[in-house]
Automatic annotation (TrEMBL):
Keyword tags: Metal-binding, Zinc, Zinc-finger
Residues forming coiled coils: none
Residues of the UBR-type domain: 276-344
Species this chain originates from: Polarella glacialis
Name assigned to this protein: UBR-type domain-containing protein
The UniProt record lists the keyword Transport: no
InterPro entries in the record: SAM-dependent_MTases_sf (IPR029063), Znf_UBR (IPR003126)
SUPFAM superfamilies documented for this protein: S-adenosyl-L-methionine-dependent methyltransferases
Acidic residues bias locations: 1-15
Protein origin, superkingdom: Eukaryota
Length: 349
């Protein structure tokens, strides 16, 4: 149950024992760019931003947007314009992460264990102009430091299906190389569904307008390829059945990108492949900030919902399981009469 509007939900006390009243705190899911002001005070990030702007000037956003709007074909033939529009009924056909959204993502990854100790690749699925790859190459050196110095990605790879946009993105790759940055950017023309993720430790999927089939393909490939401690970042929606596939959704925060605010989901690969238990047993009916979901098939919507493990396991075969929020919450799978997997202390629900 969500903390924000709990008083609006009425339930028999036999099901909801000692349910606490909402504290009136701001719903975390309404926040955009949380912590950004502090990041912008970092002189190192300010210096790198100027370097990023120089690289991105090789293919400015407006030029990339124009190329995308004109290019109605891809490597697999013409794509209907309506199928390429971003979700949320926006008219944008193309968008970019931008420097500070990428900085926020890398800051969150560093705060939650960082990257695996062995070097691996950064892979951008739907790389567009290539500017997100340039940002990743700069930011990894700022945030991922160890006793042996700054960490770098082994390879910087991207795939883009729009022919003209891919061709123009070479300007960013050439600027990256001319300024002496390593490793070189590898920009591939092809379909995102065919992108090899072997060797990747961080995958960015610009998934706002991806089809269900494509996001499922990425989830299946990442499950096989990404090592423990590796990451997948998606936009607008998480990987399907993430917890059951071995992922912890560490964060689901709204960040400002070129088309507005988009929810960025940070999935970290678990060392233990078994899904974690229902979060209800951790704090019972006390609120804990976490990612949670609705299950419309089971009538769990509005302020009532399920934690990520229950969404993947108990409700894995349900239709209508959708991301709800990242906010103070406790799981209602047990108390609302769901078929909870929870493996709580004392047995199943």
């Amino acid at each position: 149950m969500s903390e924000a509007d709990e008083s609006d939900f009425e339930q028999d006390e036999s099901n909801l024992v000692d349910k606490q009243q909402g504290s009136g705190q701001t719903d975390e899911n309404n926040l955009v760019d949380a912590g950004l002001l502090e990041l912008k005070q970092d002189p190192g990030l300010q210096t790198l931003e100027a370097e990023y702007d120089s690289l991105a000037s090789g293919l400015p956003l407006h030029a990339a947007h124009s190329l995308s709007a004109q290019d109605t074909g891809c490597t697999k033939g013409p794509v209907p314009v309506e199928d390429r529009r971003a979700a949320g009924k926006t008219d944008e056909l193309y968008g970019e992460m931008g420097w500070w959204a990428m900085a926020g993502i890398f800051h969150a990854i560093a705060a939650n264990g960082g990257l695996p100790s062995e070097f691996g690749d950064f892979v951008d699925v739907g790389s567009g102009s290539g500017t997100a790859i340039a940002a990743a190459g700069l930011l990894v050196q700022h945030f991922m430091n160890d006793d042996e110095g700054q960490q770098r990605f082994r390879r910087l790879r991207g795939v883009e299906c729009c022919v003209s946009l891919h061709a123009a993105s070479s300007a960013v790759a050439e600027a990256w190389a001319s300024q002496g940055h390593l490793p070189q950017m590898e920009l591939e023309l092809g379909d995102a569904a065919d992108m090899c993720l072997t060797g990747a430790v961080l995958v960015l999927a610009h998934s706002t307008a991806f089809s269900d089939e494509l996001i499922l393909t990425i989830a299946e490939r990442a499950e096989k390829a990404i090592p423990p401690g590796g990451w997948v970042v998606t936009l607008t929606r998480p990987l399907p059945r993430a917890a059951a596939r071995g992922w912890d959704i560490v964060e689901a925060r709204r960040r400002t990108v070129s088309w507005g605010a988009a929810t960025c989901f940070l999935h970290r690969r678990r060392h233990d492949s078994a899904p974690p238990p229902c979060t209800y047993h951790l704090a019972q009916e006390c609120y804990s900030s976490q990612v949670w979901f609705h299950c419309k098939s089971c009538g769990l919507d509005g302020d009532v919902g399920i934690c990520a493990p229950c969404a993947a396991v108990c409700h894995g075969d349900c239709e209508g399981v959708e991301f709800a929020a990242h906010s103070p919450f406790f799981c209602d799978c047990k108390v609302a009469g769901g078929r909870c997997c929870s493996r709580v202390v004392g047995g199943a629900c």
